[in-house]
Amino acid sequence: MTKPSKEQIRKWQQERIKSHAPPPDPMQIRRELGWGCVELQGHKTRRRNTFR
Known about the structure:
Blueprint: H1 6-19, H2 26-33
């Protein structure tokens, strides 16, 4: 999952306040902030048992 920084969110909020437009739907907010799932293509992760 990718997540925007606090600074990016604050900047986005200030721009939204200045625009005087109604708030967008949550999916639009996520798209504008780049907040979404990162897909791993062709990568397999292995877990190692470190507690032996």
